[in-house]
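Standup notes, protein team

Yesterday: finished cleaning the uncultured prokaryote set.
Today: Response regulator receiver protein structure.
Blockers: none.

Input for Response regulator receiver protein:
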Amino acid sequence: MSSLEQGDGVERREARGVRGDAHQSALAAGQKDWSSEAESPGDAVAGFRDADEPQLLIDPEDGRIVDANEAAARFYGWPRATLRTFRIDRLNVLPWADIVTRMQEALQQPATRFVFLHRFADHQVRLVEVVTGPVQVGGRTFLRSTVRDLGEVLARLPDFEAVARRYRALIEQLPAVVYAEEVAPPHRKVYVSPAAERLLGWPPERLQVDRVTWYEQYVLPEDRVWALHQEEQTDCSGEPFRVEYRFRTGDGRVVWLRDEAILVPDEHGRPWIWHGLLTDITQQKRLEARLQRELAFHNVLLGIASNLVAVTSERLEATLSTILADVGQFLAVDILVLFCCQDGRVTLLGSWHADDPSHALHWPDDCTLADLTWFREQLEQRQLIALVTLEQLAEEAKAERTVLERLGICSLVTVPLFASGQLLGCLVAAQQRERRLWSEEEIDLLTLVGQLITAAVLQRRAEQVEAQHHAWLRATVLASPDALLVLDSEGTVRFASPASRSVLGIESHALIDRPLAAFIADPERFQRWLAEVLLPDRATRIELGLTERPSRVVEISGIDLRTDPHIAGIVLSVRDVTERYRAQQLLRERATRDALTGLVNRFGFLEALESYRPAAADEALGVLCCDLERFSALNDAISWEAGDAALRSVATRLRHTPEALLAARLEADRFAVLLRAGDRQRLIRVAAQLLEALSDWYDVGGEEVYLSMRGGLALVEPEDSPVAVLRRAEIAFQASKQRQRERLAVFDPELYQASVDRQALERDLRRALEQGDLRLHYQPVVDLASGRIVSLEALVRWQHPVRGAVSPGVFVPLAEVTGLISQLTQWVLLQACRQLRGWLRLGLASDLTVSVNLSPTDFLYIDVPQLAEDVLEVTGLAAERLTLELTESAMLDPAVSRERLERLRALGVAVVIDDFGAGYSSLGYLKRLPVNGIKLDRELIVDIGEDAASEAVVRSVLELARSLQLSVTAEGIEHERQLVLLRALGCDYGQGFAIAKPLPPEAIVDLLRGRR
C-alpha cells in the first residue's frame, strides 16, 4: 500500500469514528438515524435526489455527509454509500477548525458561496465552487450544498480555453516545478506541476505526499532535519518560506533545489494553501563552490604577489621557499620544486615537501638538460607536462622515466618558465604516494605562480643591471663634455656636473641653489621656454647666449621629469655650439639670400613676409610680383654678364624705394616687392608708379639699355599666409603678361577662380586617368581613290561628371603642362591597340591599322620605341598595324628624332608627320628622317577649291611627297568639293567630317560590319 493510500485509510477511520459518535448521540437524543439507505434525508428535500448538479447534505454539528445524490457520486468518484460515511474534511483540504467556522457562517444566510480545494477518488485535488444554505429535515437543520467544478465554470467563460491553455503551457514550460501544499498537517502536496518529471525525474503523482514523507524519501539526510525545522517555523509565522537543500531525483542524480512558498489566504483572509516553486539551483551552487575555490586561489596569488613585490635580492631565496610552501600546502601535493635551467644544466633553485621526510627531493647533481632530451624539447616548445602516471611518458622519454622513478615520483605537472623567448626554468608539482589527476584550476595556479616567480627573478636581475647602469651613468656624467644640470620647479639649480665650468664658465658648486636664468643672456626667453615649451614626453632644445661668456652660444636641451619621483626636476644638457651656430647663420644667409643681387630669395621673402601684417585699418600692404620684359633677348644680344649687371641695377633701385618694406629676387629676372600705402587705391598707384620707375634706361657694362617691367599686385589680408599672398601676386602677374596695354594687373577673384578652375580640372583629369573615366573615339581614314577604310585614328574624349564634355583642346594642353601627357599617351596607345586586336578577332578589321597621336614631350622625353614594343607585346597586335603621328615640333632635335625613328622602323611601326604645314613646313628634314608619310594640316585644306594659292601649295606638297615616296593624308575634309579636288590631285588618303566623324567603338563595329 502506498503512502498516499495509507493516508486515505487513516482519514477514513477518523471519519467513521466521528460518525459513530454522532450516531450514538443522535439515538440518545431521540433523533432519527439516517445511515440507512432506505431512509435518506435527501428524499425530504425537494429536488435533491434528481438534481443534475452534485448535491451534498451536511450535518453542521459534526460535519457528517448525511446524504449525497447520484450526481455527487459521479462527480467525486465514490459511491453514495461511501460518501455518506465521510466527514466533510475528507473532501475539503481546509483544517477542521476552518471548516467548522465556515459551516457556522453558512447557517446565517439563505445561500453562501465558497471556493474550496476538494479531494477526489482519483487522488486529484480540484478547485470547486460550493453554494450552501440551511434546510429543515425532520425537525433538524442541515446544510444543502451544491458543488460545481470551478474549472468547468471557468471553461464556459469567453476565451477561457485559450487562457487556460496558455496558463497550462506557462506552468509546464517553466524551468521550475510548481506545487500546492495543505496548510494543515500532514501538509500533503495536493498539486505538483508536470515539469516535475522533466526536471526531477519523478511523475507528479509520486510527489503528492505529506511533508514528512517528502523529506524522508527525497531530501538528503544531511539537509533533512534543519530544512524541515525551518519549514515548520514558517507554519507558525505564515511568512514566505525559502530553503535550499539537496534532492534525490528519479534518475539517481542529486540536485540542489531552492524551495520557495507563500501562504495564500482565502476570500476571508484566512490561510488557505501554500503555493510553492521548486527551482534547480545546482549550477548556481557549483558556481558558488567554484567562486569560493577561486577566492582561495586568488588569496594565495595575492599573498605570493605581495611577498614578491617587497622582496629584496638578499631575501629572494627565503621568500621563494615560503611561496613554495604556501602553494604546496594549498594544493596538498607531496613535492613542489623550482628548477633553474641555465647553460644546459638543471639547478635546484628551491623546493618544498610534505611533512614526511621521505618526500624530500634529491636532484642528481650529474643530471643536465642534455641528458633529458624529451623533457628539454617539451619545455623549449612551451609545452606544459601533466602526467597522471609515468606510463603516459612517450617512448623516447626513457631517460626522463629513469630519473623520475629514481626520485619516487608517480604523477607530476611541469610548468615551463619563459622570459623574452628564453627558457629560465620550470616549476614542478609531484606526487610520490599516489597517482593524481591534475585539475585545470591546479594547473592554472601553478602557471600563474610560475609567472609571478619569473617576474620577480627578472626584477631582481633588472635591479642588478640597473645598479650597474647607474654606475655607468655616473661615469658618463663625469666624462661628458656637456654640462648636465637638474633644476627644480622654480628653475633653481640642484645638480651640476663638473663640465659646467668649461661650458658655462662657472664652477659647478657655484651654480647650486642659484637660478640658471641669472647666467643666461636672454632670461625672459629662457623662462618662457621652461614654462611653455618643455614637455615631459620628449626633449626640446633652445639656443641662448651666456652672461659670463658673451661671445659663446650654448644649446640647452631638456626634458621635464618633475613628475618622476626619483628625479622630481627638470633635466638639462648644456652644450657649447658656438661654431655650429656661426656655420648655421652663414648657411642660413646663403639659403635665404640671392648671391647675385643681395636681395632675399623666395624662401627668405616668404619667411620675412610672415611677420608683416596690416598694422591698422588705415594701412594697406601688397605684394608686387614683376619681371623684366624680353630679358632673354638682352642676354642673347649682349652677354650673360650684362644680364647680371641689369639685375643688380634693378635690385639697387628696389632697395631705395621708400614704399618697399621688403624686396626679393624670386628666380631669373622675376622680383617680388612688399609695398605699403594708406589704402588700396594708393597701394595700386604706388605699384604702378614703381613699375613705371623701374621701366627705364640702365647703364649695363658701359652701354645704355632700356628695360621694361610688368607685374601683378595682390593685397595682404590679416588671415593670409605668405604662400597664398605670393601665389595670388603671381597669378596677377601672369594675367598682366596677357594684357599688352596694361603694365600692372591687380589680383581679383576672377583671376583666382581661373587659376582654381585650372587646378580643379587638373585634379579631375588625374582622377579620370586613374579611374578609367576617359573614352576613345575613332575617326576613319579612307583611301580617296577607292573610298575604302584603311585606318582608324584614336581620339581621346572626356565626359566630365559635372562639366560635361571637355574639349581635347582644353585638357590635352593641360596634360602637357602638368606632366600628365605621358600617362595619357600610354593609356590611349594601350586601349587603341587592344581595341583593334579585339576587332581583328571578330574578323572586322583584317586590313585596318590604328593611328595614335604623340606629343613632342612624349617623343623627346620618354622611350617611345620601348613603349610601343611593350604595348604590342601585351596586346598581341602586329607592329605593322600601328601608326604613330608626330608633329613637326617633335623633330627639333634631329639626333634624338632620327635614333628613335630608326628603332620604330626596325620594330615595324609606321610614323606619320601630323599637322604638316602648320610649323616649319620644310620637306628638307623629312628626307633625312625615316618616316612613312605626312598629314596635311587642316589650314591647308580649308580654302582648297576656292583659293588658287591654297590649291597650288597642296599640289606642290603632293608632288614633293611622291618624290620622297611618302604617303599623304589630308585631314579636316569637311566639304564634298574638298574631297573631289583632293581625289583629283592624287592625294592618297583623307579624313574629316565629310567622310565620317569620330565614332565610339560600338558605332565603329556597326560601320565595319556594314563595310563587309
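Follow-up from PR in the comments: The chain is about 40% helix and 25% strand.
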